[in-house]
Write a structure and sequence with these properties.
This protein is of the alpha/beta class. It has 15 helices and eleven strands.
Length: 320
């Protein structure tokens, strides 16, 4: 059922969606010029803006930094009181002002011109102070603000945010920035967990349960009990993976355990994974196969066990 509140929400979202379409259609070679300047930057991208533009600038700086482009937000008012010293001639300034006339940006613009620091401006008015001083202007198209009164930054800030994302992703693709690179900047939280590798969570060395093919079952039971994974890998004389023994295998051979060796009880064809695989993939395999452990094998030789991964290790970091 439609209500005035829902009607308003839909109008706002559609207005801002139309603004984004206009922004996409308006992009021209100046976007490439801005990217070229950022690629050539030997220092950091200094992102600045005041008011709502400042909040957006802060987010753009964070997105750039997390995707391989060193970046920092500098508040323009604080810049006028000493923080200009944070900006070096190796840096690039990305200044944001919809009107292009924010007085708080004046000293930052002057500083960038005095020391020949590249300046990229995001504004809807290329003839403004920001537009005329910038080396490259990324122009926002003139659109209707979603507030209906034309005074609340809504469509304009959405376009600015999208422009920042476009810059960050274009730079990311230019650098061939991978999920592994991204993981290094996001070790915490759910995102960090999803990007964890098997090598981050697996148990290696003495912690890994291993027995030889000819191990008596007393040794097998001791290994399973001592290591605490409910399984042990079985290796041949060359250290190659021959099979795995689980609690289920023990139950199936309970009547003859005292007379058996590891090779008599083990299950061949152990389910394995490599250390460089995403831990999330390992969880998927364990869920599908209805098992709780995977033997981790060397990437260059799938017969050489190098560790073991338990489902609980993945659950501990928020996967599963």
């Amino acid at each position: 059922m439609s209500t005035p509140f829902l009607d308003t929400a839909r109008r706002v979202i559609r207005t801002e969606a139309d603004a984004l379409t206009s922004l996409a259609d308006s992009l021209d070679p100046r976007f490439r010029d801005a990217i070229d300047l950022m690629i050539a930057c030997k220092g950091r991208v200094i992102v600045s803006g005041i008011g709502k533009s400042g909040h957006v600038a802060n987010k753009i700086a964070a997105t750039l930094a997390s995707t391989g482009t060193p970046a920092q937000f500098v508040h323009p008012a604080e810049a006028s009181h000493g923080d200009l010293g944070m900006i070096t001639q190796d840096d690039l300034v990305l200044a944001i002002s919809n009107s292009g006339e924010a007085p708080e940006l004046a000293n930052l613009l002057i500083y960038s011109r005095r020391f020949s620091i590249p300046l990229v401006g995001i504004t809807s008015r290329p003839g403004s102070a920001l537009g005329t001083q910038s080396d490259v202007v990324l122009q926002l198209p003139e659109v209707t603000e979603a507030c209906g009164t034309g005074v609340v930054p809504t469509s304009s800030t959405t376009m600015t945010l999208a422009m920042g994302d476009a810059l960050a992703v274009a730079l990311m693709e230019n650098r061939a920035f991978t999920a592994e690179n991204f993981r290094k900047f996001h070790p915490g939280g759910k995102l960090g967990a999803r990007l964890s590798l098997v090598s981050d969570l697996m148990h290696v060395g003495d912690a890994m349960p291993l027995v030889p093919l000819a191990a008596p079952m007393s040794d097998v039971l001791a290994e399973i009990s001592h290591k605490g994974f409910g399984v042990t890998a079985v290796v041949d004389g060359a250290g190659h993976l021959a099979g795995i023994i689980t609690n289920g295998d023990l139950n199936r051979h309970m009547d003859r355990l005292s007379k058996s060796l590891a090779q008599d009880v083990m299950t061949t064809g152990a389910v394995t994974i490599t250390p460089d695989a995403l831990a999330e993939k390992a969880v998927g395999i364990m869920n599908t196969r209805k098992i709780t452990c995977l033997v981790v094998v060397a990437p260059e030789n799938a017969t050489v066990p190098v560790g073991i991964l338990h489902l609980h290790d993945c659950l501990r970091v928020g996967l599963g």
